[in-house]
Design brief:
Elements: E1 11-16, E2 19-24, H1 29-35, E3 59-62, E4 69-70, E5 81-83, H2 87-102, H3 118-125, E6 149-151, H4 161-169, E7 176-178, E8 185-187, H5 204-208, E9 214-216, H6 220-228, E10 233-238, H7 259-269, E11 273-276, H8 277-298, E12 304-305, H9 310-319, H10 333-341, H11 344-349, E13 356-362, H12 366-371, E14 386-389, H13 390-399, H14 421-424, H15 431-445, E15 463-470, E16 473-481, H16 483-494, E17 502-506, H17 523-539, H18 549-559, H19 565-571, H20 581-588
Parallel strand pairs: 1-5, 10-11, 10-13, 12-17, 13-14, 16-17
Antiparallel strand pairs: 1-2, 3-4, 3-5, 6-9, 7-8, 15-16
Helix pairs in contact: 8-10, 8-15
Length: 592
């Protein structure tokens, strides 16, 4: 790397494999090569994580020097001549891959990452179709100690991506490194099961793992079994961010809105009713918006912080239990829907609630954990029975032989299938805040909001601060995504240095578009998913939660009013310190 601070306004001229290219100062060799259409192979590198340069697959020759440099970890300089491919470089890269493969299980056909594995793709790229060295795969027991994540560390390639995202991006430190040299391992503190660590189940480790070492606990078999059982009445809800991501699994452009095709696929899979989590996102705004107004008017605990991200809730319970009263008491949209699917829907549809299996399709792995929380049974049953990630739904569609690209479009079923633009943007950072403001403004002022777009809360930026004037009443709001940024906010509240009234926090970088259960993506692709949700919002005939016709019917015929007795029982909950909080208090709570 350069030793001086690069000036992005200064240009650098170089050649890559004889091709001239001009890039800003501070550009890495890896990035410069991409400018001329050359993809240097990488394994440990991820564009959203800090450079680690441990795999050395990206080595290149610079200015004819004998020593090779890692392209991911070295900036360009004026007049540089880079060679990315020759016999020597290919030989080194093949040797590195052969050494990795020599201790990697050769069970690609039975691996969850088959055909989406970065190591497998590299082996094909370099023509390694047969082991060049004796295979002595390491033996580790597969760890399935929660219903959320599975660790198969025999497949770990020690790239360190999961460590980087857990420690640097999320500041959780549930994943660690131990030992040195040939004994170097990626593990947990004291090699404990995930359930006994600080893990908040956000799944970002699985989202950046290049192989099948960490992945979501696949529950597609349970859903197929329910669908095949004539005694079960199976309903499904789909989260906002799923509709702009599932197309990635079928080769569609990132951010493509595939709502209609997804609904058709679910109906062909055999679900009795296909509903929309957007409906309960609108319900969430009704409850959360009125809760905020109640706190503002009655001197309640401020700032009030959103509670729809379960990884975030886990984070607060582990690291900031003293600040739990700041959380909204609202359940997440998933759990609100689940409670209504076992009460409101059976009453209207004439279905025995004991027969109802409630399935949700989520961009999130922490939603699996959330659905099994003991307090999530206010309907008298388990509110949500099974949670599938976007990746799991894609696997179900492929198993059923459904050609997703060629599907016609269908509408959600009525009663709990209507939604608004406000609900659609729940899937992106800032979306919950914007949806709430669209409703709260009209409730407070009694006037129609002319401009529904609160653009200051949008974008991938990790922390945003905005003030909104509600007809003379200034409301200070904050939006945070990613747990490092959330930690900054919580530490400020602890110190008494936060004057915000309302804070939105999303556990995952970018919000749900970058959830741990989404098809694998970089920040650029997440931004395209954001754009997809905002375009969907713009196209909706109704863009405010309190104007959703089905939500209005729900309150008129069943709930009564927001924060009423029935809605309080079904749609609100409480949170408490998790038993593993002592870990956080023992020095893991950095950033104070």
């Amino acid at each position: 790397m350069s030793h001086h601070k690069p000036d992005p306004n200064k240009s650098v001229n170089l050649t890559v494999d004889g091709l001239p290219v001009t890039v800003p100062e501070g550009t890495t060799i890896l990035e410069a090569a991409k400018k001329v259409g050359i993809d240097i192979p990488v394994l440990c590198h991820h564009p959203d994580l800090q450079v680690r340069a441990v795999c050395r697959l990206c080595v290149v020759e610079c200015d004819g020097a004998g020593k090779l440099k890692a392209a991911c970890a070295n900036d360009v300089w004026e007049g540089l001549s880079v060679v990315t491919d020759n016999a020597r470089i290919r030989g080194i890269r093949k040797m590195i891959l052969e050494l990795i493969l020599a201790e990697h299980p050769q069970d690609c056909l039975a691996c969850i990452r088959n055909q989406s594995c970065e190591l497998q793709a590299l082996a094909q790229q370099f023509g390694l179709y047969q082991p060049a060295l004796p295979v002595e795969a390491r033996r580790f027991p597969r760890s399935v100690d929660t219903n959320t994540l599975v660790r198969d560390m025999a497949k770990c390639v020690k790239c360190g991506r999961c460590v980087a995202v857990c420690q640097e991006t999320q500041t959780v430190r549930a994943i660690n490194t131990s030992r040195r040299s040939v004994h170097y391992e990626i593990t947990t503190p004291y090699e404990k099961p995930l359930i006994d660590t600080l893990c908040v189940y956000c799944g970002q480790c699985a989202a950046v793992c290049p192989v099948g070492a960490i992945y979501e606990n696949d529950q597609t078999g349970q859903v197929f079994a329910a669908l095949d059982d004539p005694e079960r009445h199976v309903v499904v809800q789909t989260a906002p961010a799923v509709r702009v991501a599932i197309g990635d699994a079928f080769g569609l452009p990132p951010g493509a809105v595939t709502t209609g095709k997804m609904v058709t696929a679910l109906k062909r899979l055999g679900f009795d009713k296909v509903f929309d989590t957007d409906f309960s996102a609108d319900v969430t705004i009704m409850e959360e918006g009125h809760e905020l107004l109640h706190r503002l008017q009655s001197g309640g605990r401020l700032p009030m912080i959103t509670s729809c991200s379960p990884g975030w809730i886990n984070f607060v319970e582990v690291f900031y239990p003293d600040l739990i009263p700041h959380l909204s008491t609202c359940k997440s949209p998933q759990q609100m829907f689940g409670a209504l699917a076992k009460t409101y829907y059976p009453g209207v549809g004439g279905v025995d609630p004991a027969r109802v299996t409630s399935v949700s399709i989520m961009p999130c792995t922490a939603k699996k954990f959330e659905s099994q929380r003991p307090e999530m049974n206010s309907s008298g049953y388990r509110d949500v029975d099974v949670v599938l990630t976007t990746r799991e739904l894609a696997r179900m569609i492929k198993m059923a032989g459904i050609n997703f690209e060629k599907l016609p479009e269908s509408d959600y079923d009525s009663l709990m299938g209507d939604s608004t633009g406000a609900a659609a943007i729940f899937g992106t950072s800032g979306g919950v805040m914007e949806a709430a403001l669209r409703t709260v403004y009209e409730v407070v002022t009694g006037e129609n909001l002319e401009n529904l777009d609160f653009e200051d809360v949008r974008g991938h930026q990790g922390l945003k601060r905005v003030s909104v004037n509600l007809k003379g009443t200034e409301v200070k709001i904050m939006v945070a995504n990613g747990l490092r940024n959330a930690r900054t906010v919580m530490n400020a509240i602890r110190r008494g240095e936060c004057d915000a009234h309302f804070i939105e926090v999303m556990c995952c970088p970018g919000g749900c578009v970058g959830g741990g259960g989404q098809p694998f993506a970089t920040s650029r692709q997440k931004l395209m998913r954001m754009d997809g949700l905002y375009s969907l919002d713009q196209s909706m005939p109704v863009r405010q939660s309190h104007k959703n016709p089905e939500v209005l019917t729900l309150y008129e015929k069943y709930l009564g009013q927001p924060l009423g007795e029935k809605s309080h029982h079904l749609l609100h909950t409480h949170y408490s310190t998790q038993g593993k909080n002592h870990w956080a208090q023992a020095g893991h709570d950095q950033g104070k």
